[in-house]
Amino acid sequence: MRHPGRSDGADRVTIEDVAAAAGVSTASVSRALARPDRVSAALAARVRAVVGAMGYVPNPAARSLSSLHSREVAIVVSDLSAYAAAIDAAAGRLRQAGWTVSIAGFDREAGPGPALQAAIERDVEGVLLVGGAPSGPAASALSERRLPWVALVAQGAEAEIGIDFAPAVRALAHHLKSLGHRRATCLVDKGGRGGGWPGSAASVLGASGIETRFSCLPDLCTEPAPRWPTAIVCADDLAALQVVRAGELRGIAVPEAVSVIGSGNQPFSALTSPPLTTVDIPWRAAGEAAAARLLAWHEQRPGQEATLTAKLVVRRSCGPARGFT
User: How far apart are CA 188 and CA 176, in angstroms?
Assistant: First the structure.
């Protein structure tokens, strides 16, 4: 039987014993003892209480050989395909700097909370959140652990790496007005609130005199063709392709009857029929900037602010507003 109070020989209390008793990882115990500023006050107090009760005495030699850092950054992302360029750039930069990178996806409707909690419990040293923002218990845990995180959310209030859509949406408003469009729909996920690119587009299009509303693809497809707008702005290029296909199935030609605009400028967007008018978003540069902010924190130097600019790429999925005949 192990005697918790003893500190000699094979019965010496180990850091694993303390971690098990406190209900945390060994990395958390090490951090609470050596770097209490990196954990919540409650966790530090719990570990100290267990250490006192069990009579744990850290082994100086072992502690000098062990690392208090997991050297892991978790990338938590809502859509792997949409943000592939940003993830690839960020992961490459972090790995080049000697970090391990894990990637976990989350459902947009459910939010990033569970994936963030799982990363926090692994004692990661940083989080890059792509396509969402922390809220609820996950946000509290990030704050309590003093865990550095960077959000890469277009036009998000929590974003530290911003995407400026203003030049692209102004160009789109001018382009659509020059083609005679007066009614547009900004397509979002079902139940979406119109953030990011669709939200920016709706605001500027409306101010330019183009009547604009939000909808989702299932709702749009239930409307008779004559009630369709003459222009549809989509949250991403894949959604734009779905609109083109839905139009084909209903005999609504693109761009003859409806103009379709995507977002992301994915490689396939220039190869579709017709090629998609879309918004080019500098995701690789955004991923690099996000990784640079995490590295700056680790190196205890100020991180540079980064706001990147999206631009409109005009192709043949936009045409004159002929409407329906």
Answer: 19
> Which of these CATH numbers, 3.40.50.720, 3.90.550.10, 3.40.50.2300, 3.90.960.10, describes 164-281?
3.40.50.2300
C-alpha–C-alpha distance, residues 243 and 298, integer Å: 44
Distance CA 191, CA 216 (A): 8
CATH 3.40.50.10230 fits 72-162+282-306, yes or no: no
Q: Cβ distance 63 to 29 under 8 Å? A: no
pLDDT in tens, 25-80: 777 787 777 767 667 788 888 888 998 888 887 765 444 444 456 689 999 998 88
User: In the chain, pLDDT over 90 holds for what percent of residues?
Assistant: 41
**pLDDT band with cut points at 50, 70 and 90 for residue 102:** very high
**294 membership: H or E segment, kind and range:** helix 283-298
What residue ranges do the domains of the chain occupy?
9-65, 72-162+282-306, 164-281
> In the chain, at which residue ranges do the beta strands (DSSP E only) sit?
72-77, 100-105, 126-130, 149-152, 161-164, 183-187, 211-215, 231-234, 259-261, 278-280, 306-309, 311-313
Structure tokens at 199: 């939200």
Dist. CA 222–CA 7, nearest whole Å:
73
Residue type, 267: P
The top-level CATH class assigned to 9-65 is mainly alpha
